[in-house]
Write a structure and sequence with these properties.
Number of strands: 0
Number of helices: 4
Order of helices and strands: HHHH
Oligomer: single chain
Structural class: mainly alpha
Largest sheet: none
Distance between the termini: 52 Å
């Protein structure tokens, strides 16, 4: 009984901490992007719902693709299975591409083109910054 309770408490704490970390990371990303793109209040109000919906759909694509491949026995693939995987891969890539095109079209309605172009660089910069901070916390150094 104590062991079950201990495991339950540990899992609850871990879930809570992970949720807090995700929320903190999301808040940092929002601030980073808003500042770098120099979004006006009006732009931000229109931009963030579009961006958040896009990111959620991207996460779904990645999660679904991972789940499909996770239990795959690669060494037992038949040629027919491999052909189906290729077809599925192409279909998924086409869907992701269409999703990205819609995202850009939606952004064009609320942001100037220069800010849309800057968004990609800003996302890359944010990822790089988070990676560098992670390395520093892990004692791995960082930038020379």
């Amino acid at each position: 009984m104590k062991k079950t309770l201990l495991i339950t408490v540990f899992l609850a704490i871990t879930t809570f901490v992970n949720a807090q970390n995700r929320d903190k990371l999301k808040a940092l990303k929002i601030a980073f992007i808003t500042e770098r793109l120099d979004l006006t209040q009006s732009e931000a109000q229109k931009f963030w719902p579009i961006y958040n919906a896009f990111e959620e759909k991207e996460r779904e694509f990645r999660r679904d693709n991972f789940m499909e491949r996770r239990n795959l026995k690669w060494e037992d693939l038949t040629e027919e299975d491999a052909q189906k995987l290729i077809d599925d891969f192409i279909k998924n890539e086409d869907e992701m591409h269409a999703h990205r095109q819609k995202f850009i079209a939606d952004l064009r309605k609320v942001l100037p083109a220069k800010k849309i172009i800057l968004l990609k660089k800003t996302e890359d910069d944010f990822k790089q910054e988070m990676l560098e901070q992670y390395k520093m916390r892990r004692g791995g150094g960082g930038r020379p």
